[in-house]
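Section handout 9: paired folding examples.
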Amino acid sequence: MSGILGSALAGDMLLVGAVILPLFALPPLLLAPPRLAERLSVLVLLASLLVALALAARVGADGAALATFIGGWRPPLGVGLRADGFSAFMLVMTAVVLFATGLFAMTTPGAAPGRVARGRMPPAFWMLLASVFSALNLVFLAEDLFTLYVALELLTFAAVPLVCLDGKLAQVEAALRYLLFALFGSVLYLLGAVIIYGLYGTLDIILVARAASASPGFVLALAAMSVGMMAKAALFPLHLWLPPAHSGAPPAASAMLSAVVIKAPIFLLVRFWLDLAPTGLAVAVAPVLAGLGAAAILVGSLVALAQPRLKLLIAYSTAAQIGYLFLMFPLAVVASPWSALAWTGGALHLASHAFSKAAMFMAAGLMAEALGHDRISGLSGVGRAVPVALVAFGLGGLSLMGLPPAGGFIAKVMLLSAAIHLDAWWIAAVILAGGLLAGGYVLKVVGLALQRPAEPLAVRPVARWREWVALALALVAVGFGFVPLEPSSFLFIGRPASWAGLVP
């Protein structure tokens, strides 16, 4: 009995700790000298990563979702935290990316005090990083719609200031645009939550899923919440805020925003349509989501090809690449063994995209720091100045193109296989076209960077260890390419009962 109680308490501590622990970085930032505060903050990020790994190991060992109820109050009155396989997967992915971001943002040894361009980020960055970490973990673990609303608002108000850390006018304008889109999404989400509460008298996702039917009110609620999340995720045509916001932010902030922040609303869309919605309704709506995803891939990739600046190219690439996650919906909602492969492929693409985009934004920041600009036309010879950063950029681009052995390749093979066997040929065609377009803008940059410059470059020194941080993230994205080409049993832990027959 005591062993069971101790195990339950350990599970409760992991769930609560995943949300609370990142905030322990805030006191050092307020009380300690800047350099010491940075290092203490990175230690907190490392501790949070270890908690995420422990939680994932616990979920995997138990083979069941881990849950706790705050204060012992169960729904519909209480607030629950729950980690299934997908949540644990997202927690670990986020923790690794944000820990690497913290390392990348640390002060370069020997840098002059106050010189942000040489490596030191302002204290506000570290506070916002800790807040983003905590808010993301709450999104992945919260079990009721109102707690999710609170988590989304915390995430918004921590992420928006990251866009304008340098205080430039263009950054402030981009941050305000981001804020308007995010608030628009929040209003629609809250409207949907209010409708659901009026219909079912609870906001707990599991209880609502049991009672839900395709009534007009429930359809309206899910539609409002979905459009709100699309605005926050920058899905075409609601993507207009993303390129200026992500391209104008400092490299460490851009890496964080593009890799993990926009994954939170996508995570919730998966919850809405694969966990919450009745199967018939999900099957009817999934082609619409996939159509928007296809448009995002094609339009975003074409616009990326025409960009004159490197960070802007990567930002439009982000708007394109999230479209693949929406192609998953028609493939994953059908009652077929191939939906298990599509679900695994979508989750794998989400993770490989996060690591590759973080690596590419960091590499682009190092190239700009070395050259003093990020104009694509002036990148000739940058491969000699920051060779490791260029390799990181190229490996990240390899995953975006879907070439072996990168994670993007395995993810797209899974999605392609499911699309072909489910006769969704148009999805297969979009996946292939998106890979070719990604190859166009990635190879455009790499080809220029490898050229011999017409005249000697005036190169500023950069911290080599930062290049290795970017390369490590790119190698993780490549490493996903070695996972088995089969459905992942871990991602099925705690999934709805309707998926039981599809669990490998």
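Moving on to protein 2 of 2.
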Amino acid sequence: VAGAGWSLQQLVKWLGAHVPPIRNAQIWTTNHLRLIVRNPVYKGEFIAHRWVHIRLRANDEHPGEPERQVWRKVQRPPEEWVRVPVPAIVPPDVWEQANRMLDQNKLTASRNGKSQYLLTGLLACAQCEWAYVGKRRPRRKGGQVYYSRSYFCCRGCGETINYPKCGQGSISCRVLETAVWRVVSRVLLEPDILISALEQAYASGPNAELLREIAYLDQQTTETAGEDELLYRAYVAKAFDEAEYAARRQALKERVRQLAEERQKLAARVVSLEKLERTKRCILQVAAAAQAGGWEADPPHAVKKTIIKIVVDKIRVNVREGWFDLNGAARGRYPIHPEATGSIVETSARTDALAPPPSAHDR
């Protein structure tokens, strides 16, 4: 079975060795997998009336020749789509989780970067919430241009116009990446911390609030179905004509559709029991590999990046005060320079690794 945390390229290699390619294709490609993951049919939703073919003027670079027109397939606005429920192949929360991972991979992809950064797409300024990006300072020596060590800096400080500067400084990539990996590797070596916090988050906090909102939406959907029945009885009793009945029923259908869409969005964010068990199994697999491979010492760059993306969703950095917040499966606030504050990372790995970040008052 394909392993947790595999990239699309790794999955393509595994499928090429075990599964025949899709129809009209000679081999598996990453684009095939991406289209499959993005297709909402697999979660039980077929979208009709999504595309339209229109004629457009071709980009003709030869003046004097007759104007040419070509057909193009263009996507309609989402409000014009027709959503049709179909049997689902995978649960909606699994589909949403896979698509979120594709979006995250797009943010953290290093193929377009000039340098390899371990925390690409994960960093944000704790003060202004702009992204922290990796850069390298050019230096000149003896007519030659070379680059010094890489560093992370707040994008909002250097690329915004008429926006208050947060004043957060830059930080060495090596220093911040080492600090983050120190925490992640320690938590992976003690997976019970992660699992205990996940179980606690499942039963309380934001997850419980999401469950209450879903229950409310379910109640609203049930009441709307009751209104539809009353509407039909009123029509049979000739309380209004066929045109008014059709208009009122269409409004009820639109209401049900909006409720279903809102519920689906909430269900993608809520931690269901099935999602909790899948996450726990994934963490145990990663932790076992970490313990067997000695990742705490110095694993390869690609291995570090894969593991960090599994347990961390976002990292908020405050360079001036010298700390960073982890958000995701691993949570908590940690010092960038642990030697400046004693053994905070040592105790945090055991007690605060998954606690909610301190409030603004505590800061």
